[in-house]
From TrEMBL:
<dbReference type="GO" id="GO:0008703">
    <property type="term" value="F:5-amino-6-(5-phosphoribosylamino)uracil reductase activity"/>
</dbReference>
<dbReference type="InterPro" id="IPR002734">
    <property type="entry name" value="RibDG_C"/>
</dbReference>
<feature type="domain" description="Bacterial bifunctional deaminase-reductase C-terminal">
    <location>
        <begin position="4"/>
        <end position="178"/>
    </location>
</feature>
<dbReference type="InterPro" id="IPR024072">
    <property type="entry name" value="DHFR-like_dom_sf"/>
</dbReference>
<dbReference type="InterPro" id="IPR050765">
    <property type="entry name" value="Riboflavin_Biosynth_HTPR"/>
</dbReference>
<protein>
    <submittedName>
        <fullName>Deaminase</fullName>
    </submittedName>
</protein>
<dbReference type="GO" id="GO:0009231">
    <property type="term" value="P:riboflavin biosynthetic process"/>
</dbReference>
<dbReference type="Pfam" id="PF01872">
    <property type="entry name" value="RibD_C"/>
</dbReference>
Amino acid sequence: MGQLIYSMITSLDGYAEAAEGDLGAGAEDEEVHTFIGDLFRPVGTYLYGRRMYETMVYWETAHTEPDLPPHILQYARDWQAAEKVVYSTTLQSVSSARTRIEPTFDPEAVRRLKAESEHDLTVDGPNLAAQAIAAGLVDEYRLFITTSVVGGGKRFFPDGVRLDLELVEQRAFGNGLLYARYRAR
């Protein structure tokens, strides 16, 4: 049975998307990106909303760019090997292999997908993750916390939910980014 993981870069004040600008420095650091690649190599399925998919589909062709470092090429290969499910009512087609579109997020279908999976799954993007959290589907939360306070945007955790989590791993990187992994109790 696969675990469902929600992981994103988040600002120090808890926003996964800033209202204005970006979330600050972090994942572009080689040490951090290598760690993220190693962490998500075992993932078998990515669950995306349209906007997150449109951001991540870069990895389908990243390997064709010249002079990429090995850790970037490895991440691209790992992403390409995984299944992708995109939840969207507006997206008509996808431009990556191993990808399908579903019109709506169906918690029961995701429960079955988890039960049948030999590998972990991720839910990516705060809007889609909010639906998975509300349905009680998320097993782990992996936060990459920047040193920036952005003052507004889309929160990592949705409003109106209570979660009691257990800290199971943490790490500080040289660039100030913090990694915290929590398991649902």
